[in-house]
Amino acid sequence: MASNIYDIAYELEKALKNSQEYATLQAKYEETRIDPAAKKLFDQFRNIQMKLQEKQMTGQNILQNEVEEAQRVAAMVQQNQKIVQLMDAEQQMSIAINEINKIIMKPLDELYGKMSQ
Amino acid sequence: MASNIYDIAYELEKALKNSQEYATLQAKYEETRIDPAAKKLFDQFRNIQMKLQEKQMTGQNILQNEVEEAQRVAAMVQQNQKIVQLMDAEQQMSIAINEINKIIMKPLDELYGKMSQ
Ligand SMILES: [Ca+2]
Ligand SMILES: [Ca+2]
């Protein structure tokens, strides 16, 4: 068994890249990417999300027409099966990544927990 | 070599827990925790940081006297060798964690990068 943390991190990278979650995500990205209408809608959705997130993080007001645009694009996204499947694959991958992080960070959480008692 | 991502994540947890960075951080936490004056100052510093961060994230105004209190406590922290050493150990651990995350997330970054072209 490797014991250097970076060696094991590289093993984990390789395992993630060979996982079912990654294969599915890669396939769903590709299906969306090569479909011009789906790709355009997906980019639009991501851009709106990022813009609203940035406004929220920097304490700027979100305008009524921005909320309406976000809702309109989100409704269109839900009608696009390629994007729906891509976002489902993203969520599955996100669940795996969160689980991994919870495992890795356990020793640090224990230290912080002990410190805040 | 294990190939299940969670098996490898547990290996990584164990390796992190056995690392020099972790041993140092644990020792520095303990030295601060058992020193009442250092512990009190450290808690005070963390509470102020968390309060200001929360205000910033929720877009609330940070008051002038809060800025001054944060500066005053930060100056006291820099005079406390136990806390200075603890924060240095936290930074070393943070560098290792960031490096690990960069390695693990590389396949996902590649997917996202390809998608945003
Ligand atoms: Ca289409
Ligand atoms: Ca003291």
From TrEMBL, chains A, B:
InterPro entries: Com_YlbF, YheA/YmcA-like_dom_sf
Family under the similarity heading: Belongs to the UPF0342 family.
Descriptive protein name: UPF0342 protein CWO92_00960
Organism: Heyndrickxia camelliae
